[in-house]
Amino acid sequence: xxxxxxxxxxxxxxxxxxxxxxxxxxxxxxxxxxxxxxxxxxxxxxxxxxxxxxxxxxxxxxxxxxxxxxxxxxxxxxxxxxxxxxxxxxxxxxxxxxxxxxxxxxxxxxxxxxxxxxxxxxxxxxxxxxxxxxxxxxxxxxxxxxxxxxxxxxxxxxxxxxxxxxxxxxxxxxxxxxxxxxxxxxxxxxxxxxxxxxxxxxxxxxxxxxxxxxxxxxxxxxxxxxxxxxxxxxxxxxxxxxxxxxxxxxxxxxxxxxxxxxxxxxxxxxxxxxxxxxxxxxxxxxxxxxxxxxxxxxxxxxxxxxxxxxxxxxxxxxxxxxxxxxxxxxxxxxxxxxxxxxxx
Length: 344
Prior knowledge:
Layout lengths: L1 H10 L7 H13 L16 H9 L3 H20 L12 H21 L5 H19 L22 H26 L4 H27 L7 E4 L13 H20 L4 E4 L8 H18 L2 E12 L2 E10 L5 E6 L14
């Protein structure tokens, strides 16, 4: 395997390709990696073209070009989830800060890429910057590499040991190892065997942990998520007739889920817009629904508090099977640009 890898990388000469092509490929791969419509496997190579570009170029112009490409890549990523009332132009309020947080990892690696510790320098800097972002900024954990594995049941088990940082470290480590393997055209323990071994170890641990949890035979509870027909996310607010249609659909689906055996049912965020003057009657109706169906209901809705400018409460009511509200939750981390009152 090692010899075949060495032969393959020697036949492929990185420098024969215009470095701008690596930027273009990097933008395309990054756009396919994060958030909605993502391809999980892309995460393991999403940084490789960018690292190859940095290894082939020098000077502030190339670094500025790289930063623009990084912003473009994250702009494509964020565009996939932008919806009303947030205008598309505000995509840069997300993509530029995320790019700035990721930039140091790339630039520091490019400066010290020939050092022995460069393989670990890149993932270390990247997870430090991720931690700073989700600890101290309103962007929270948007763009964190670990989220790209959200569908991989085995790998996400490792978050129980090392948190988001551990899984992100592995993803960045594999990326820089692949880039180094291609650039230097030779494999080594640190660029091939070791990251591959750790990846397999993570998968093995996650598979064992997941399978053991299934084998214990503990009691389980059926849960359900209920979607909404509401497409309202800003002005104009829905008419009473439209609100009643949405309410009827939510209640019908909730009943269907309960009849199917669900004991805990949650509605998706902002399932319905409810005017303040109707909120008291609305709360009584969802309390009655939970009591009647003998379910725990997490009922979400948006209640406007002003229309000029638009401000609203984006909330959940947690209701037990007796129809009692156990907790009211206002969204704690509204995304930048969302006109929601921040919960405490």
